[in-house]
């Protein structure tokens, strides 16, 4: 019932779908980081052949927020990637738009209704891993004082 | 429990654009709704297009934002696209053309975009889509509140026309323009608090009228409706061309009218309290991310100050021309 309600999400004061609830949670390890995944759709929770390990509370965490966008139709298109400052943005048409904030270690991704589970697991999840992989190496995005110098402002 | 996995990443063909001083060598600066836009681009066409905007200097100390625009021939496409917007937290993404992609970072006040050559040199695209969207999204982070209302000027006094969707704000704006009011904005007005007084800014976007308003404006008969950003079919009217009405980029709000349709004939002006203004604009404002509390606070402060203007609920059962006439007569006594 809750998922049905999410599919009908239509708040006139939220045309950008900023506040779509993402109550489903999981987590996994990627390199030296823990990835916390939030979603509004079970089929968008990454499935891997997993080796369970004890929980490490001290490993740095990344957040992935994966939103099934029930109003976006069509298949994913060739990615167009913009990299600026601490931000990487990728557009694959309305079916997939994502942004990764390296400084905040947060990835947001909207995935259209026609993107099936196989495409998500076999194409998008590796892509998301690659995009956010840099964040698993904190020093590559941070300077000594903890903030990466923006190439444009340098 | 934590899980460990191994994944093989295939090589995915992706067009990648890095934004830096090397890829965006040209710089310009211009004023936009009381803010300062710092533009970086690789396109001489964008520089030429922005030349008129650069003529308007910003007020000293005006808040600024960065706009980085990369133009590439590979982004060209003949396929029409429906504009698509999504956002989360401090980030907003927009597809305005099939291969044009923009991001708006509200935290760092930065717009980044890859545009097709056609979009880059299209003044309509900039004036009606990109710049209003940029200030509409980033404005609250710079103390500029985007409010869903029209703004006109009469002899140095600003009149804001608000009302629920479908109340007839745009038609009334066109009718007032025809009576000689100066148009500042239609649809969206960007209000900021300057020391001592409020300033309402417009961005020279056209007045959007539904096709059936031709009954009130016969001069629109030769115009063809266009599909607007929200998917509606509308006639886009430049008041300066069509009504020979003056236009300007800003005004100081003095009067505020909340338009309501009624079945009773005539126009009735009912004074309203500041609480009505506050509730109306707070209720109709877009939800802002919780991570930007200062943006919500800035918008509320603008609305609170706006609530001190002389305000009325205007209940009208008259046609737009008669209503515009009634407003003109009413304000002449104020």
The domain count of chain A comes to: 1
Global morphology of chain A: globular
Instruction: Report the portion of residues of chain A in β strands.
Output: 25-35%
> Which strand order does the major sheet of chain B show?
3-4-5-9-8-7-6
Give the largest interface pair and sizes: A-B, 57 and 52 residues
Tell me the CATH topology of the largest domain in chain B. Answer: Rossmann fold
Notes on the structure:
The complex is a heterodimer of chains A (154) and B (334). Chain A is an alpha/beta fold and 154 residues long. Chain A has one domain (2-140). Helix content of chain A is 15%, strand content 32%. Chain A is built from two helices and eight strands. Chain A has a seven-stranded mixed β-sheet, covered by helices on one side. Chain A is globular and about 40 Å long. By secondary structure, chain B is α+β, with helices and mostly antiparallel strands. Chain B folds into two domains: 26-142, no CATH class; 145-332, Rossmann fold (3-Layer(aba) Sandwich), CATH 3.40.50.300. In chain B, strand 7 and strand 8 (100-105) form a beta hairpin. Chain B is globular. In chain B, 43% of the residues are buried. At the A-B interface, strand 1, strand 3, strand 4, strand 5 and strand 6 of A face strand 1, strand 2, strand 5, strand 6 and strand 7 of B.
Layout of SSEs?
The complex is a heterodimer of chains A (154) and B (334).
Chain A: H1 2-7, E1 24-30, E2 33-39, E3 51-53, E4 61-69, E5 80-84, E6 87-91, E7 96-101, E8 106-112, H2 117-133
Parallel strand pairs in A: 2-4, 4-8
Antiparallel strand pairs in A: 1-2, 5-6, 6-7, 7-8
Chain B: E1 2-4, E2 15-19, E3 26-32, E4 35-41, H1 44-54, E5 64-71, E6 84-88, E7 91-97, E8 100-105, E9 110-115, H2 117-120, H3 123-138, E10 144-147, E11 150-154, E12 157-162, H4 169-178, E13 182-185, E14 189-194, E15 197-201, E16 207-209, E17 226-227, E18 233-237, H5 239-242, E19 250-251, E20 253-261, E21 267-271, H6 274-284, H7 293-306, E22 310-316, H8 320-332
Parallel strand pairs in B: 4-5, 5-9, 12-20, 20-22
Antiparallel strand pairs in B: 3-4, 6-7, 7-8, 8-9, 10-14, 11-12, 11-13, 14-15, 15-19, 16-18, 17-18, 21-22
Helix pairs in contact in B: 4-8, 6-7
